[in-house]
Write a structure and sequence with these properties.
Elements (H helix, E strand, L loop, with lengths): L2 H35 L2 E7 L14 E7 L17 E3 L14 E3 L7 E9 L13 E8 L9 E14 L3 E3 L9 E11 H13 L2 E6 L14 E2 L6
C-alpha cells in the first residue's frame, strides 16, 4: 500500500468517525429533548364556539397530541368523558377541553323544563345551595296602588336545583345604585312553576330562596302563601 492509499484509508476512517460522532450528537439532543418534554398524550381542542348548556358531541372537538407534562390534571384525554355532558360555560374556539368546563346533563322528569334565573347573592342562601337541593322561592311585590299593601308571596315550593353558576357582577338599571352580585340558579320546574318564577324575576322587588331541609315538610297551605304586615297577628 503506497502513501496515497494510506492517506485515503486514514481520511475514510476519519470521515466514519466524524459521522459516528455527529450521529451520537443527534441522538444526545433527541434524548435531551425527550427527557425535557416527556411522552405525548391525546387531548381535545374545541373546533368552534360552543354555547353554555349545549349537549356535547365528538364533532365539536378535534384530537391533538401534546406532551403529557404540559397538560393540566383535569384535561379531557378521551371523548368518552363527554358522554351525557353539557357545557357549563361558553367553550371558546381553540381551547383545550377540561373536565371543569362540563357537567352531567340534568335529568328532567316528564312535564318538566329547565329554567335559569339570576338570584341576588345577598338574598340567596350563600354557599349552601347546591345541585340537588330543594328550595322554596319567595318574592316581594309593591302594592299596585299607593294604598295597597306590599306583599311577600311564596311563588314556588320544593323547586329542585339542577345547577348553581358562578358569581356575576350585575350593573344596576339605575345609575345611582351600586352594582350587585348575582348567581344563576337553574331549576327543574313544571310549566306553571316556570312561569311563576320567571314572572317573579321580572317584576318582584326581591326574589329569595329558602333552603328546605332534606326530608322536611315541603307543602305550604294556601293561606300561608301570601304575607302582609298589616294582617300579621
Amino acid at each position: 500500500m503506497n502513501s496515497r492509499q494510506r492517506r485515503g484509508v486514514i481520511l475514510l476512517i476519519l470521515s466514519v468517525l466524524c459521522a459516528l460522532g455527529a450521529f451520537a450528537g443527534v441522538l444526545s439532543v433527541i434524548d435531551d429533548v425527550q427527557s425535557k418534554v416527556g411522552p405525548e398524550v391525546t387531548a381535545y381542542r374545541v373546533r368552534s364556539e360552543v354555547a353554555p348548556y349545549t349537549t356535547l358531541n365528538a364533532g365539536q372537538f378535534e384530537k391533538v397530541k401534546m406532551p403529557e407534562r404540559w397538560l393540566s390534571p383535569n384535561a379531557v384525554t378521551s371523548l368518552r368523558e363527554i358522554q351525557g355532558k353539557i357545557a357549563v360555560t361558553t367553550l371558546r374556539k381553540g381551547s383545550l377541553l377540561q373536565t371543569d368546563m362540563i357537567v352531567d346533563q340534568p335529568a328532567l322528569r316528564a312535564g318538566q323544563q329547565e329554567v335559569a334565573i339570576m338570584i341576588d347573592a345577598a338574598t340567596g342562601v350563600a354557599g349552601k345551595i347546591t345541585p340537588g337541593s330543594r328550595v322554596n322561592v319567595y318574592a316581594t311585590f309593591e302594592g299596585k296602588k299607593e294604598s295597597d299593601p306590599d306583599q311577600s308571596k311564596i311563588i314556588v315550593t320544593n323547586a329542585r336545583v339542577l345547577d348553581v353558576g358562578r358569581l356575576t357582577s350585575l350593573e344596576p338599571d339605575d345609575k345611582n345604585q351600586q352594582p350587585t352580585d348575582a348567581v344563576p340558579i337553574t331549576f327543574a320546574l313544571s310549566t306553571v312553576d316556570a312561569q311563576r318564577i320567571t314572572y317573579a324575576e321580572s317584576f318582584a322587588q326581591r326574589v329569595r330562596l329558602a333552603l328546605v331541609a332534606p326530608g322536611g315538610e315541603t307543602t305550604v297551605p294556601d293561606k300561608d302563601r301570601t304575607y302582609e304586615l298589616a294582617t300579621d297577628k
